[in-house]
Design goal:
The protein contains five helices and nine strands, in the order H-E-E-H-H-E-H-E-E-E-E-H-E-E. By secondary structure, the chain is of the alpha/beta class. The protein has a seven-stranded mixed sheet with strand order 5-6-4-3-7-8-9, with helices on both faces. It binds 1-O-pyrophosphono-5-O-phosphono-alpha-D-ribofuranose (PRP) and adenine (ADE). Adenine binds near residues 28, 29, 30 and 134.
């Protein structure tokens, strides 16, 4: 593993994030993490950041919960580095077996999130991970869902945070972000 700091690595990682004005709607500046995955150097850098962070928090987490869809890519890497299992949080109707459900409000509609109950049990310490924190609505709903299983959600990790949207005001657990806009 390289000896550079996570902060220095994150500065370089930022240069791999491509930004698209007016996508998917006018006025939205879309921050696309997939460009990182399209460059092997970018992917290695991202993986190294997660590996270094996993070393910092080793022993504090029993399970990684990864948010659909881009969070799946990050959750798998993080779980491998932490040597713990990972579980997906998905929109309703996509996960078989016993699930916990939570209905949550979007700007104009309602939706339902689900998580399978096999791994998540009373007292499990869960880290929740996604690519980006915007309004915090997705993260907030996911935390409430995970708590319904009895798990303790100990922290959230996102690669990018849109700071002006002030999501931290509505989230009651520590959030680690590597890149801020
Ligand atoms: O903080 P919020 O305002 O809730 O926004 C953040 C969420 O938005 C994006 O997902 P998106 O809804 O585009 O879904 P996808 O990952 O399935 O494409 C992103 O990956 C986060 O999950
Ligand atoms: N600006 C943005 N870029 C990428 N994903 C997002 N999800 C919500 N806002 C986003």
């Amino acid at each position: 593993m390289s000896t550079t700091s996570i902060e220095d690595d994150a500065l370089v990682l930022k240069s791999y994030i491509k930004s698209y004005p007016d996508f998917p709607l006018p006025g939205i500046l879309f921050r696309d993490i997939f460009n990182v995955f399209q460059n092997t150097d970018g992917l290695k850098l991202l993986n190294n950041i997660l590996k270094k962070y996993a070393t910092e928090i080793a022993g504090t987490v029993d399970c990684v919960a990864m948010l659909e869809a881009r969070g799946f890519l990050l959750g798998t890497l993080m779980a491998l580095h932490l040597n713990v299992p990972c579980v997906p949080v998905r929109k309703k109707g996509k996960l078989p077996g016993k699930v916990a459900q939570l209905e949550y409000s979007l700007e104009y509609a309602k939706d339902v999130l689900e998580v399978q109950l096999d791994v998540l049990k009373e007292g499990k310490k869960v880290l929740v991970i996604d690519d980006l924190l915007a309004t915090g609505g997705t993260l907030d709903a996911s935390i409430q869902l995970l708590r319904k299983t009895g798990a303790e959600v100990v922290q959230a990790v996102v690669i990018m945070e849109l700071v002006d949207l002030e999501a931290r005001k509505k989230i009651d657990i520590p959030i680690k972000s590597f890149i801020q806009y």
